[in-house]
Amino acid sequence: MDCYTANWNPLGDSAFYRKYELYSMDWDLKEELRDCLVAAAPYGGPIALLRNPWRKEKAASVRPVLDIYSASGMPLASLLWKSGPVVSLGWSAEEELLCVQEDGAVLVYGLHGDFRRHFSMGNEVLQNRVLDARIFHTEFGSGVAILTGAHRFTLSANVGDLKLRRMPEVPGLQSAPSCWTVLCQDRVAHILLAVGPDLYLLDHAACSAVTPPGLAPGVSSFLQMAVSFTYRHLALFTDTGYIWMGTASLKEKLCEFNCNIRAPPKQMVWCSRPRSKERAVVVAWERRLMVVGDAPESIQFVLDEDSYLVPELDGVRIFSRSTHEFLHEVPAASEEIFKIASMAPGALLLEAQKEYEKESQKADEYLREIQELGQLTQAVQQCIEAAGHEHQPDMQKSLLRAASFGKCFLDRFPPDSFVHMCQDLRVLNAVRDYHIGIPLTYSQYKQLTIQVLLDRLVLRRLYPLAIQICEYLRLPEVQGVSRILAHWACYKVQQKDVSDEDVARAINQKLGDTPGVSYSDIAARAYGCGRTELAIKLLEYEPRSGEQVPLLLKMKRSKLALSKAIESGDTDLVFTVLLHLKNELNRGDFFMTLRNQPMALSLYRQFCKHQELETLKDLYNQDDNHQELGSFHIRASYAAEERIEGRVAALQTAADAFYKAKNEFAAKATEDQMRLLRLQRRLEDELGGQFLDLSLHDTVTTLILGGHNKRAEQLARDFRIPDKRLWWLKLTALADLEDWEELEKFSKSKKSPIGYLPFVEICMKQHNKYEAKKYASRVGPEQKVKALLLVGDVAQAADVAIEHRNEAELSLVLSHCTGATDGATADKIQRARAQAQKK
Question: Which of 88, 410, 555, 809 has its CA 20 to 30 A from that of 261?
Answer without folding.
Answer: 88
